[in-house]
Write a structure and sequence with these properties.
5-stranded antiparallel β-sheet, Homeodomain-like_sf, cell membrane, DNA-binding
């Protein structure tokens, strides 16, 4: 074998007819083409894997923190809202012994109040009122008064009243409807917030919403993400029923239980797979929860490992094969060049093409040509869907960065004639699920919209060629049409009205639902279509609620639609939130900004008047949702009639500030101050009695009086003019100064008496008195 290699090498170096330069060049080329592949593969494997793992861990930590902050904020808002609702006059202690069936008005008010709670926060699935009687009952806006007959459920609900905290969470609480599987996470607010409780306000969380929040953490469909309690019980998990997923989830849970850190991340190895696990915990009202998410590192780094190893293997094998086959290449190196020339000149090759590289290229070229024809056929089939998707994004404003010329060019690429054309939009809205003879149920909105879109497609296709149906999946269907400009606007408008009327009558008749068709104005600019859709959605709200089918003309409803009109929805949302939270200064500032934005956008008196009427209705609706009767604050005045007499923006701003916002917030604050003042007085007495104890704290006082630390801190600062900790420090410093002057106790003994560690007491005393305790004693004596 070795002798054959020596003979081959001698022939290749001495008798092959090739010079040393050619052989050295060939070997150099082989090394250049093979060694870099091996080096790059090895470097990519080392650096790529480490970089991916580092980035995954960093992204995990960031995503986990954002999700925890979001859920923590949502739960904090819910706790604050529960505390405010518990102070409502409808939660008076009289209902504890009241015959709810006889007191019809009181019971109805409770139903409405519970319904308002459930609608105030999407996170709330159900709001119930539990009355701890001899025969305990549950009051629900959806199920009415439900007696609790099951002894196990009675014990569970009665246990709620024995909890030390006035506000706390329960991870698996039955809903009191007789269904054993009907349990959920619940926020419990004992009633009343101060004193002996007679019942509890129970807010059940929507498990689907919690699952959605947890799923936001999951970046890997093969990983795991869940929320667990302090003892390791999984509370919320978007489980897919897969056995492998369940085993992974259990392994991650066991590994997290064994860790004492509050937040962190690490690598978990399981069954030959590596997972990046990130976890963090937070506490709400004494209840400790942990977020956990796991992402497969092996799957993410597998392409890097495969490519790196492939490059190493290919480089090594290529180098060996190149050395072994170099003598073949030296003999046939010019034949492929001639073959390529023959193919270019369309000459037939003189030799057999089987096994030749260029023959392979030729074969591949024919194969690619065939694939190209197949792909072209598939593209033709997918063309309608691509056209529909483009036009849908166009009318929704996703191509705002493109110019008019670019938009027309794209439309023409989809065989839509744009030269000398009028463009117009129709918006079809269906409603009326509550009708007895309706063909669809309330949970079949998408099915009903799909049926309406199909009917519209059949009608439009028979009347006009240039049209596109757009299903918005929200009980509305859009129709984009174009008409040649050789017709007058009135002629096109007449045809459009006939089409709209036909659509309204046909859809209403077939689906047994109320149908409204809103016609937009004709425009010659494609860029106007997104704004027209906004106008149509706003104008369709003016439909007649009693009509089975109707046609609305945007130009007749808003004659000035040539001017852009915008309603400041974002400002209105901020204003309603400020009013709901009782924020006086922010509410006054926002209503001024709202009116000025209306003037800036429209500069039309009619639009300003309509916008002002709209925001007034929203304000009164928000007040009703908060549990207050607007007529009580406004002394029976007709606010709409007064507002209708105003014409100047400044007059409207003063009207809202002085006649609407200020009376409501003053009444709201007066009502809340009475309850909070009593609470702060009792907390102040408790501090003065126990300020020398090291156990006294804001959390301890909040638990003692059945409230939250946020509500107590805010009320304490508002009523006493100083925050809780400063008030406590002042009492302790005064006592310390008295002991320093009137007694011979050591500084360490004085510090322990007032509840401080000696070193901390000395630093705190120096901060407040600009001297040490010893210096103070010497100066005062």
């Amino acid at each position: 074998m070795w002798s054959r290699w020596r003979q081959s090498w001698y022939w290749w170096t001495q008798r092959s007819g090739r010079g040393n330069f050619y052989r050295r060049s060939l070997i150099l080329v082989l090394c250049i083409t093979s060694l870099p592949t091996a080096i790059i593969g090895y470097t990519s494997y080392i650096t790529g894997r480490a970089h991916i793992e580092k980035e995954i861990m960093r992204n995990h930590d960031t995503l986990l923190k954002k999700t925890m902050d979001r859920m923590n904020d949502n739960l904090a808002q819910l706790e604050l809202a529960a505390t405010q609702w518990s102070l409502d006059s409808r939660m008076d202690a009289r209902i504890a012994d009241m015959n709810l069936k006889d007191e019809y008005n009181t019971t109805q008010n409770l139903y409405r109040f519970l319904g308002l709670m459930k609608g105030a926060y999407p996170l709330i699935d159900q709001a119930q009122l539990y009355l701890d009687r001899e025969d305990p009952v549950i009051i629900s806006d959806s199920e009415g008064i439900v007696p609790i007959r099951n002894e196990l459920e009675r014990d569970i609900f009665h246990t709620l009243m024995k909890q030390e905290r006035g506000v706390f969470w329960w991870e698996s609480l039955p809903k009191g409807n007789g269904k054993p599987e009907s349990t959920s996470i619940a926020l419990i607010e004992k009633l009343p917030s101060v004193g002996e409780p007679y019942g509890a306000l129970i807010l059940y969380l929507n498990r689907d919403k919690l699952v959605e929040m947890v799923e936001e953490m999951a970046t890997d469909p093969n990983g795991a993400a869940f929320l667990m309690s302090k003892d390791g019980h999984i509370i919320v998990s978007p489980s897919n029923g897969n056995e492998e997923h369940a085993q992974l989830e259990a392994a991650v849970r066991e590994s997290v239980i064994g860790r004492s850190e509050e937040i962190g991340s690490y690598i978990l190895d399981r069954n030959g797979q590596s997972y990046s696990v990130a976890f963090g915990q937070f506490s709400r009202s004494g209840t400790l929860w942990k977020f956990v998410t796991a992402t497969s590192l092996s799957q993410l780094t597998a392409p890097v490992e495969f490519m790196s190893r492939s490059m190493l293997s290919i480089g090594g094998i290529g180098l060996l094969l190149a050395v072994l086959l170099s003598w073949v290449a030296s003999k046939r190196i010019y034949q492929p060049i001639m073959r390529l020339v023959n193919v270019i000149k369309d000459y037939k090759p003189t030799q057999e093409s089987q096994g030749d590289e260029l023959a392979f290229i030729e074969q591949e070229w024919r194969h690619l040509s065939q694939e190209s024809r197949v792909l072209e056929s598939k593209l033709d089939k997918a063309y309608p869907a691509l056209r529909s998707a483009f036009l849908l994004q166009l009318v929704q404003g996703h191509f705002y960065s493109l110019s008019e010329t670019e938009l027309r060019g794209r439309m023409e690429s989809f065989d839509w004639q744009t030269e000398s054309q009028w463009f117009v939009l129709l918006l079809v809205k269906i409603s009326g699920f509550a009708k007895e003879d309706g063909r669809f149920l309330e949970n079949e909105e998408q099915l009903a919209t799909f049926a309406a879109a199909n009917i519209a497609q059949e009608i439009v296709n028979t009347q006009t060629p240039n049209a596109e149906i757009m299903n918005f999946q929200d009980m509305t269907v859009g129709i984009l049409l174009s008409y040649p400009m050789d017709r007058t606007k009135q002629q096109a408008k007449d045809e459009l009205y006939l089409l709209a009327n036909d659509l309204a009558q046909t859809i209403s008749s077939l689906l047994k639902m109320q149908t409204t068709v809103c016609m937009g104005r004709l425009t010659a600019n494609v860029q106007d279509l997104p704004q027209l859709l906004v106008f149509l959605r706003s104008s369709i709200r003016y439909r007649d609620l009693k009509a089975d089918h109707q046609v609305l003309d945007l130009e007749e409803m808003l004659p000035s639609t040539n001017d852009d009109v915008h309603y400041p929805f974002a400002l209105e949302k901020e204003l309603m939130q400020a009013i709901r939270m009782g924020q006086s200064e922010q509410s006054l500032s926002l209503i001024e900004s709202f009116v000025h934005e209306l003037v800036r956008q429209s500069s039309k008196e009619k639009i300003l008047q309509e916008g002002a009427m709209q925001v007034l209705g929203s304000m009164l609706h928000t007040m009703l949702e908060s549990g207050f009767n607007p007529h009580h604050f406004f002394e029976g005045y007709n606010l709409y009639e007064q507002l209708n007499q105003l014409r100047e923006p400044e007059q409207m701003v003063r009207f809202f500030q002085t006649k609407v916002i200020s009376p409501y917030i003053e009444g709201l604050n007066e009502y809340q101050d009475i309850h909070m003042k009593r609470l702060v007085e009792r907390v102040t007495d408790r501090i003065q009695e126990r300020f020398m104890s090291s156990d006294i704290s804001l959390e301890e006082c909040a638990d003692a009086f059945n409230t939250t630390t946020y509500a107590l801190s805010k009320a304490f600062k508002q009523i006493n003019g100083v925050n809780f900790i400063d008030y406590l420090i002042t009492l302790r410093m005064d006592k310390a100064k008295k002991l320093l002057v009137e007694s011979d106790l050591k500084v360490n003994e004085i510090a322990e008496q007032i509840g401080y560690q000696p070193s901390y007491f000395i630093r705190l005393f120096r901060k407040y008195e600009n001297m040490t305790p010893g210096q103070y004693r010497d100066r005062m004596k």
